[in-house]
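User: Good morning. I'm curious how N6-methyladenosine-5'-monophosphate would be positioned relative to this chain. Could you predict the structure with it bound?
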Amino acid sequence: MWGDVTENFTKALPKAELHAHLTGSISPECLHEVWKRKRSSPAGSQLEDPLSACRPEAEHHDILSFFPVFDKYIYNLCNDTESVAFATEQVLKEFEADGVKYLELRTTPRESLENGMTKEVYVQTVLDTIAKHGKEVLSTYLILSIDRRNTLEQAMETVRLAIKYQDKGVVGIDLCGNPLKGDVTTFREAFKLAKAHNLRLTLHFAEVPQSSTEVELQTLLSYQPDRLGHVIHTTPAIEAEISSRKLGLELCLSCNVHAKMLPGGKREFTDHHFANWYGQSNAIALCTDDVGIFGSPISNEYFLAAWHFNLSRYDLVELCRGAVESIFGGEREKQRLYSLLDEFEKICDNAEAAP
Ligand SMILES: CNc1ncnc2c1ncn2[C@@H]1O[C@H](COP(=O)(O)O)[C@@H](O)[C@H]1O
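Assistant: Good morning! Here's the predicted structure, ligand included:
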């Protein structure tokens, strides 16, 4: 009844983005601007132009080449409050221009002491930039990430920062980072503290076979997460547990396909496990993960889902409604998003006004 899914339609769709790493969401063009400003300094002159360093022409990054882009490159470029604020503002503008109405941005607190940036100053800078951007069109909250390489003390520091800045828009804690590193049992106390302070929990889950042992996945589930990211290398027993708990799922089509994360080296979008979860009772949020690296904005993720899994305009609106169930931002934000989706649906009913 509503016609074909077009890119205009998926852009206009009022979307919630729930799994976007701040540093991974910075576009190469924005990094290029930061690089141009810094080129004259001795440190800046050592760095390659981000237009070639971050999005290699020939191939997408895979899960092995991916993490060093942050450690060896972007963190050395965006290493002071000025560049963090500038990049954050650009990221917010780009999500807003892509029709995102609700954003949970996540980031790992980091320091650059030679530039006067402590982890707390980093978090304050991101939060101030979010506050300055305003909430009229795009409502943004922050999730603080614990890196799998962290010690318990570092993880506790992140949780303490999250607690301290809860009233400024920090809504949760994430566990992320190279899935080949670290031991997830390290963080039990940190997650317990977060939960005790009503912070919500989202965990990167079953990203690669090595991080998907029964023991690791059961350990992660024992932390009582509210949502899980990626959820690729699971077993029927784990899936049954995820279903019975109705955990929200953050699924990242382009990231998983381009970074070659699907089981057995499968490379087609139609092989993505979105197909298995779609239509079940878990809330699914399509997410970009790192739009700056994988180059696929969230409107394109919805377009790809429609294209590869044969979803109609109506199905996409329903998918967006489903994602709202699992947001961390509270009841008022949920109602705001449901109203936006209702209004959008009415516009779609009027064939001449429809996007
Ligand atoms: C396959 N996708 C992924 N899996 C696991 N961790 C990921 C990720 N994509 C990004 N990160 C994590 O987010 C950091 C960058 O953003 P922030 O500096 O925190 O804003 C990366 O260093 C990595 O730890």
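The beta strands are 15-21, 100-107, 139-147, 170-176, 200-205, 227-230, 248-251, 284-286. The pocket of N6-methyladenosine-5'-monophosphate is lined by residues 21-24, 70, 107-108, 145, 147, 176-177, 204, 207, 255, 259, 289-290 (CB under 6 Å).
Let me know if you'd like a different ligand tried.
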